[in-house]
Structures
1.
Amino acid sequence: MDESRPDPDQLLEELKRDEEKEQRGRLKIFFGASAGVGKTYAMLLAAQAQRAQGVDVAVGVIETHGRGETAALLAGLEALPPKRIDYRGKQLVEFDLDGALVRKPALILVDELAHSNVPGSRHPKRWQDVEELLASGIDVYTTLNVQHLESLNDVVGKITGVRVAETLPDRVFDRADDVALVDLTPDELLRRFGEGKVYMPQQAQRALKHFFRKGNLIALRELALRRTADRVNADMREYRADQAIQGAWQTKERLLVCVGPDPGAANLVRGASRLAAKLDADWLAVYVETPRLERLPQARREQILKTLRLAQGLGAEAVTLAGTDLAATVLDYARVRNVSRLVVGKSTLTGLARLWRPALAERLAERARDVDIHIVAGELDERGREGAPPVENTMPVLGTAGRRIRWRHYLYAVAVSAATTALTAALLRFFDLANVVMLYLLGVVLVAVFFGRGPAVLASLLSVAAFDFFFVEPQLSFTVNDTQYVFTFALMLAVALLTSNLTANLRYQARVATRREQRTGALYALGKELAAALTGAQIVEISSRHLQAVFQARVALLLPDGQDRVRQPDPAADAPAVDASIAQWVYDHQQAAGLGTHTLSASPVHYLPLRAPMRTRGVLAIAPRDPGQLAVPEQSRLLDTFAAQIALALERVHYVEVARDALVSMESERLRNSLLSAISHDLRTPLAALVGLADTLLGEREPDPKTRRELTHAIHEEALRMSGLMSNLLDLARLQAGGVRLNRQWQMLEEVIGGALRAMRNLLASHRIELRLARDLPLVNFDAVLIERALCNLLENATKYTPPGTLIEIAVESRDKEIWLSVQDNGPGLPAGLEDKIFGKFIRGEKESAKPGVGLGLALCCAIAAVHNGRIWAENRPRGGARFTLALPLGEPPALPEPDDPAPPHTGPVS
Amino acid sequence: MSESTPTIVVIEDDKHIRRFLRAALEAEAMTVHEAETGQRGLIDVATRKPDLLILDLGLPDMDGVEVISAVRGWSDIPIIVLSARTQEAEKVGALDAGADDYLAKPFGVAELLARIRAHLRRTLASSQAEGYEFRFGEVKVELVERRVSRAGVPVHLTPIEYRLLATLIRSAGKVLTHRQLLKDVWGPAHVESSHYLRIYMAHLRQKLEEDPAQPHHILTEIGVGYRLVQ
């Protein structure tokens, strides 16, 4: 095998990336170690150079900080007007993203990439605005300081003692097409600072003075240089891979970092991110939710979710797993995802506790033989040291809601203890004290079973206290004479606590299992119903119903129309107020938005794209009654799975429709072709005759009057035949298109027969006609015009295929629940085997015969019979000749008029 | 109105049809005025005072039925309508609006001329004093005495049958739609009960026609109505 052969997957990815790059705008970041190094200045210089080359440059946002030399560079550049946003009574100025998208310059300047937008903007962060600019194909120049990079945020914070709140995910930086380092030596920077050339807001002056120390500046410069060098390194690697330079290339590393509830988790994630960047590895941040972790207070759970989001921001794929054994779950997942390195935090437990519960790292090391394990010191940052982090969002989280402390349960615990004490006092007359003690344990277990851990602990303590107070000498006092009892108390307390803990655990696990099963059940139920859905409307109905029930939410599904605009098919009464523009954005960008996301999070509705393998199939809008629900990993995972299932169902239905359309169009195509070939033959023949006959009449030699008359007669015949053909064709086309409104009335076949005979009198002149109508024929409900057409066609057929002079009989009789109208002759009859086929379109009894007509006549009869729910068939008569029978169903005729004459001489055809 | 050379207005947008109509009608010593549009045609009808109007229902500028209504506002000359074969509703609409007869395209010249003559005769007859006797085939109807006989043998008709026959005789040669007949004979409440009409028409044919299944005088215009021809 050729070692230097490039990996096809890699090539594909390369191609895909290039393609994406081509459509996207290019992002150039002017990167510096700190404020004041001249990033904006450098950016404006570059922009002026571009403008000189004729590039359409516009200024989105520029902060000149009142520096004259920078402001001077703005000359000649078009500045886009900012957007004014009312925020809490104040008017704030913000970059106008929509204005920029409409203006669509080739290149736009947007200063300070890490800036946080004014609340109420579309995106909370400016870099998200920039992403959207890039996605719409606009090139962007921007600036960034090293301390704003998310992964370096804590390092810079430690070095300088100043932490910035505005951070930028590293992937934005890493995906930038160009990074230009704007470098200035610390001495030079300090000189400029001293000269007042560095911008300082008044209020932050002291902090900034602290910041601009030489030591800090050197460290920051090193960080900036190193980060840039890393990028150059990565570029080099990419280049080498591009050029198929074989070197130290190895399989791509994949890192997995285990995120826990420990306060140091954020630092752990940042460390993993740096490690991943150095190794140029993909990385996963995994949180395993064990029953123990599920019990954590909601603030801690919030913290975990925040850490996961941080990891996502740093470029990780965030995964939430569920399992009872942390180490086993992580390892299983690591193997599935082909992870080469695990990153875990150092255990914060010490001493005995570690013996009791070995650290994750140790447990992993015990089992993992094929994976490297990195242990990162779990040092706490300031936030960690303060204990639980302040919770910004105190939304109740589902799953914790059920665990809310119920003070009533504690009252029950007290009551149970009191009751036990009373019972013990009563039983003490009959039993020994040592035996009766067991009653307390029973009480504790019962409290644990019914009211959970907290009340059980309370009951344990109360039991021991009550036992001491009421039954141990001296009674009615907590003092103990016999020291033996101290041992009893200790044992009793230990047993009570242990059992209560175990019971509560069991109870909890049972509840978790039930909830899991409910989720699986809900998913299964949805899947089962969706599998049976045949139309988009059904899917919408089924999905809405299930989502409403499972998430206690109001739900709307928006589906795209022909122009790729998503619309709500028909809004239900309880549908949430859907913002069409957000839904459209979600559909276009295939990203979630609204509640619980980074985009327009102020909206009360969560919008989720319904992504199927081929394309996005719609948007799911869900407004849960409890907004915190969506933050819970298992709930959001469930929602994602629901969305995926719905999307798949929509895609399936879409392809079913496509397939059906294809089949229909194939069938009609086939029909059209046979029709066209038949018509072109049968129309051209009479036309050729007409043209020829007319030519002869117009010819140079005047034909004699007899010939002239014959020719004219022939023209007349041919033209009439074509007219008949056209009528049949049009009728058949109308009937088969299904657009015919039948004019059904209760009437007599007799009239129709009379009409048909009159219409065909010229053609029938050469044949003998006999009518055999039963007397007292009932009224039949039919469209007279169509039945007359059918009869005319049958008569024409009979004259066409029998020699002149043949007897043609028309018979009508009632049979059972039908009325039979037959046309029979005593001619040569039908060729054997053709009795059924004869009604197929464009089939004639005789192949390639000189007799005109495309066989449309019988096909039309067949169609007419069908629209009347009747039938038609052909057969040979026993004594020779053919018989065609049209059978129409007899219905219930309407009430007949009262005879107006007391004694009518004849009874009419009354059924 | 001149008896020898009837004047006929043709409103038809197709050049070739106009040409052969003119040729055929002029060969019968009729005076022909052609109009391409409904508007033009209405002016012609008003100014030329024709004896008969031939009207194509598919006109470029207005609906044929509108033309009929306009003409009927001030004239009761016979109107023969030309229409496509399949448009039964259109024919009925035109007849209900006041047209006298219709011909489905394509039609033969002989058929057209026969109809024109019949209608001219009818107007002539009605312009004279109301006849007291009407004959078709072997049937004689004495209108004043309300007596009907076939080949000299008296025929008993019920009151409704007689009313139906009288209505047909009043408009002999003209196509009467189901609605018109029902309204005249049974009254406006029964215009949808077309099966009444069919049953009584069958009675009439049984009593008056030689072969009721192949009538020669009480003709069925399938999907449209009935016509009595002499």
2.
Amino acid sequence: MRAALVCLFGIVLSFSAYADEARHWLNRLLEAEHTQSFQGTFIYERSGSFSTHTIWRNVAEDGRVWERLLQLDGILQETVMVDGVLQCTSSPVGYSAGEDSVWPVHSLDPEKLAQWYDIEVQGNSRVADRAAIVLSLIPHDQHRYVFKVYLDQVTGLLLKSMLLSEDGNLLERFQFTQLDTMLSAYDVRPGAACQPVQPISARDLTPGAWQIDWLPPGFDLVTTRLQRSSVSDKSVAYLMYDDGLAHFSIFLEPLHDAGVDDIRSQLGPTAVVSRRMSTNDGDVMVTIVGEIPLGTAERIALSIHPGNADD
Amino acid sequence: MNDRTLEESLSALMDGETDIVELHRVLVATQTDLALRDKWARYQTARAAMHRRLDLSGSDISMKVAAEIGRDRSLRKIDSVWRHLGKTAIAASVAIAVLSFVRFYHGGADIDAAGKQSVQPELALIEQEPSAPVFLTGYRNSEAASVFDAQDSTGWYRQRLPFYLRQHAQQVTLMSGDRSLPYARAASVDGAAKE
């Protein structure tokens, strides 16, 4: 009988050990993102698109993370970011500025993720000629997709990721084919093709300007702003939500009598749903853009309406 | 024999020296004579003591039987708790053994120095991957907008969607731990829109 109790205790410990191992690897990924310099080549693939890129990432002495990305096929496209903020790019038109975010930048939070996903270690693998550990992040509900990530066992860096729909369709694949963490220097200086990003004028969105009656559980508001449209002089309200892994954005743009139909479509992993909405100031087009299931995006679009505040 | 008193008959009965008539007389008497019954009990006690089989509970047999049944019931209850615990532990042990084997199988394949076996976990995973069609075509013109052409008679979306998609990806780039993936998503919209 004592043996039986010992067995039971061991089982409980083992299950918690598996969960701990997954969390350990996520923490290693998080640490690598802030501390590991490297150079690598990766592919990105989704329905209708296949592209190859090189990245140089250098973590400076002051802790700032410089990243230079160069697209290797098609039109020359170069991008430089510092701590994720866009500094320059080859096609700066239409990009919003590297403004100081008033919202706290929050990165991967394994504890929060575990509330909405089952995070499990699947086993070992090999990517870009490096040993990798495979993690699966399986959602608890139908409002988010399955993520499968392959992390470098030496550095914890993301080597490969796949986004899968509920019925097992591959929505996108991101995979390194070569990775070097032993260089003496990483060249993150932009070339001539990289042009400075012009700021797009933006201001704070009035709290309560828009009301959302339903949100998928676990998604928190991470940023809002009122910005100038890239096409006209209209003001576009922008809100973004995430659950720590999946993200969706909401755009609210005045229509001013334009005869535009609702749309409902999918671009690889990204759902795009729009709905025409009546307000006191005329019709507004609500557009949801995000890596969430189409049905969830539709439901969000249907649940938005003008708030009490005047905007 | 008919001359013996009841007490003498009782003593004779203890020694097995009564005939059937005398036995009948004693039995009838003990039904009503409490003192005689008491004496009978004392004789029995004395004999048991001599033969070292003394039971001093002094209770009626029916009470003793009831007590025995009660004791047996509580014993059975304790037994079943341990039995249940034992069964659970065995089942759980089997489960953990299976899990450990699966884990070891995935992990153990890495040990092979030849490298062939280390490929197997990846192959196994690939088999689990859905067989989605791989689009190796190059970029299409204004791909982001072309998806919506059928619904975009005014061109409203063609002007705005590439911007929406890029901004969404750029915001994810800013927020998430890994930035290469959202960057690549944005680039897939960019390149398509430019050709």
